[in-house]
Design goal:
Layout (H helix, E strand, L loop, with lengths): L5 E5 L9 E4 L1 H8 L6 E11 L5 E9 L6 E2 L5 E3 L7 E5 L1
Antiparallel strand pairs: 1-7, 2-3, 2-6, 3-4, 4-5
């Protein structure tokens, strides 16, 4: 039996392109040390299945200072302004 990790993430199914976002505090602390807030704009979405075959929407983001867009894990991103996105469980 496979051991699954459950994450509570934002559900980006209702988000729109053009939404201003930032890297999550967890991502910045884990990957960027003392980095300040990094901003980006959602330009699209991709859908992947988690380990339980549930569809999870991953935002495609154009991050400041980058030359191209990148698909971003939903746990590593949050809206810059107050948006009420629901949360869902994701299994890895």
């Amino acid at each position: 039996m496979e051991n699954l990790n459950e994450l509570t993430i934002l559900d980006f199914r209702t988000a729109r392109t053009g939404t201003l976002v930032r890297r999550s505090a967890h991502f910045l602390q884990d990957r960027c040390g003392q980095a300040k807030t990094q901003l980006g704009v959602i330009t699209g979405f991709e859908v992947f299945e988690d380990k339980k075959k549930a569809p999870i929407v991953w935002p495609v983001v154009f991050w400041e200072g980058n030359a191209s867009e990148s698909t971003t894990h939903p746990a590593h991103i949050s809206p810059f302004r107050a948006h009420t996105l629901p949360t869902i469980s994701m299994f890895e």
